[in-house]
Design goal:
Length: 567
């Protein structure tokens, strides 16, 4: 986005809106979309980059949560599975069916987090089967039913799986989506309905008039201006920061208990050689479509009675997660060496070989859990809440990536009850990029791009991939990959600046392209090219280039220290 566009957007906010959303993660994006489709004039302000908070740090599963079913949280699981079904339909380019292998070993004391004392542990597999049937039942079909596998079949799906004491296994389906791309798709859809969304714009104060919240003071962190945004309704969708935002107008009517979750990004090889699609020896013994992700693995038991996942992601494997109460600074949760050691220890329990050298990246995120009486973060519910303050600030808190749409619907229903706006329209509204997918596939097939890059573009942008191809029509170098081991194209950087408001190098390296998380060298070999592309798009001076590089280097160094601590 050029600076002129940014000025225009800030001017539109200053002219006043019906609904002002504070927070540009998945929840805020969902609220902006829901409100815009009901006819409200919507503004959204995000203090840093879009999805830079928890919404870029998830396990990227669109799931009901087997573990929550094991804890009998039926309402949460049923709601999440219903939303999973919707997202598979409404964003088929982004949300794909994800097969998982769940291995069951002799001697597991707490498979899926359910404690089974001897002698009952002999029946643990039957208990797990009951949970899987329940999961299928709550999902109401949808072709995603679980199946039983022999140990040999399970090992064929995940060749590096340990098979000593492996009694039986199951394959089950959930779904997965890149969280940052999903947030951008929701924001782009909201913009189509007129929403004005601005990043690097922080709400620093709430305006109260006649005893009601009537807007916010916003600091433009790029231009250094202050903008007063008047609004009939203000929705606080600030994730783990929501308590701070609510405190801008009084005592917050809720308490959050942040919980830290860490992921390691591993080389793909830790799962063994990938199956070759279409090969007669293809080991997956169930019907599947080319849309499916590669098989993931559920680690059925952790030391602290949870489960963990190994999920193929962007040519790597995501290993996560931890789940610990957190009271440090909200802006930069860090990965400690004990977090990383915990995850590697568990991966080694189920995989033949995982070395510290297999770790290429690491990140930590904070779950915005709503306070309950129980002590352990892992036991707090992932249900969401919509809470209204006496002065009318509506806070949408808690929840999951999976249930963002429902959460947004519930929040905007509150506003609609105040002024009679129409009913929710997002239950059947396709997200940006979902329209014209077949045509986009044909256009990409006719391009010089190799299969891996075509798939990457389609899964990231859907039909908007053709816009990236169009950029390359006048500048063919934009079709070049930025790194050897990550399928990101130069054109994506230009697209991020022009269409998705990228303003900072570190954001493009860590969030928009994920080069600094996925590439073996932390994106070092690509950073000069990315900087040159952004400087040309955004008109950076040499001093600005230096500042941008310094910020990126500080972040990449932090990650390098974590990785070196492991070795
Ligand atoms: P955020 O994404 O944090 O967004 C809040 C935004 O508000 C931030 O971008 C912040 O910068 C902005 N903000 C704060 N203060 C201000 C201000 N004053 N002015 C302007 N902007 C402000 N869910 C799933 O469904 N599936 C999973 O696999 C999954 N895995 C997870 C794994 C981990 C480790 C964690 C931590 C969470 C996981 N979740 C998962 C949960 C899910 O990621 C979160 O529920 C979701 O991303 C929260 O989104 P949000 O928009 O509410 O918060």
């Amino acid at each position: 986005m050029s600076s002129t566009h940014r000025e225009d957007h800030l001017a539109a906010l200053a002219a006043g809106v019906d609904v002002l959303v504070v927070g540009g993660g998945i929840t805020g994006a969902g609220v902006a979309l829901d409100a815009a489709t009901r006819g409200y004039r919507v503004g959204l302000v995000e203090q840093a980059d879009f999805a830079s908070g928890t919404s870029s740090r998830s396990t990227k599963l669109i799931h009901g949560g087997l573990r929550y079913l094991a804890r009998a949280e039926l309402r949460l699981v049923a709601e999440a599975l219903r939303e999973r079904g919707r997202l598979l339909r409404l964003a088929p380019h982004l949300v794909r069916p994800q097969p998982f292998v769940l291995p069951l070993y002799g001697g597991l004391a707490r498979p899926l987090g359910v404690a089974v004392a001897p002698p009952l542990h002999r029946w643990a597999p039957a208990g797990v089967r009951a949970i899987l049937w329940g999961y299928d039942l709550l999902a109401r079909g949808g072709g995603l039913r679980h199946r039983r596998l022999t140990p040999a079949q399970a090992a064929a799906c995940v060749p590096a799986l340990r098979t000593e004491e492996l009694r039986e296994a199951f394959v089950l389906y959930d779904a997965a989506a890149d969280d940052v791309r999903l947030t951008h798709a929701v924001l782009a859809t909201a913009r189509r309905f007129g929403a004005v969304t601005v990043n690097y714009a922080r709400a620093t104060g709430l305006i109260v008039e006649g005893g009601r919240v009537a807007g916010a003071e916003v600091e433009d962190r790029v231009g250094g201006r202050r903008v007063v945004v008047r609004a009939r309704h203000v929705v606080n969708a600030a994730g783990v920061w929501a308590e701070k935002v609510a405190a801008l107008e009084g005592t917050p009517p809720f308490r959050l208990r942040p919980s830290k979750g860490v992921h390691l990004v591993l080389r793909r090889e830790v799962l063994g050689p990938p199956p070759v699609a279409g090969d007669a020896r293809e080991p997956r013994p169930w019907a599947h479509s080319p849309r499916d992700g590669e098989t993931a693995l559920i680690l059925p038991e952790t030391e602290d009675g949870r489960i963990a996942f190994l999920v193929p992601w962007a040519g790597r494997v995501l290993l996560g997660t931890t789940d610990d109460p957190y009271s440090g600074p909200l802006d930069r949760p860090t990965v400690s060496s004990s977090d990383a050691a915990y995850l590697l220890r568990h991966a080694r329990r189920y995989l033949r070989r995982v070395e510290p050298q297999d770790v290429v990246g690491a990140f930590a995120g904070l779950r915005p859990l709503v306070e309950a009486d129980r002590d352990r973060a892992a036991d707090l519910s992932r249900e969401h809440a919509v809470v209204e303050s006496p002065r009318g600030l509506v806070s949408a808190i808690g929840g999951k990536l999976t249930t963002y749409r429902q959460m947004a619907e519930d929040a905007v229903d509150r506003l609609a009850r105040r002024d009679g706006a129409g009913p929710c329209r997002t239950r059947s509204l396709p997200l940006a990029g979902a329209e014209g997918l077949t045509r986009a596939e044909q256009v990409l097939a006719a391009s010089p791009l190799p299969e891996q890059q075509r798939r990457h573009l389609l899964r990231s942008y859907g039909s908007a991939s053709t816009q990236i191809l169009a950029l390359a029509a006048s500048e063919p170098s934009l079709l070049r990959p930025l790194a050897d081991d990550v399928p990101v194209l130069a054109g994506e950087v230009v697209y991020a600046c022009r269409q998705e408001m990228a303003v900072a190098l570190a954001d493009v390296m860590f969030l928009r392209t994920r080069l600094s998380v996925l590439a073996e060298d932390g994106g070092r070999s690509a950073v000069d090219q990315v900087t040159a592309l952004m400087a040309a798009e955004l008109g950076w001076s040499p001093g600005e280039v230096r500042r941008q590089l310094e910020r990126w280097e500080a972040e990449v160094d932090e990650q390098r220290q974590v990785l070196e601590g492991l070795r």
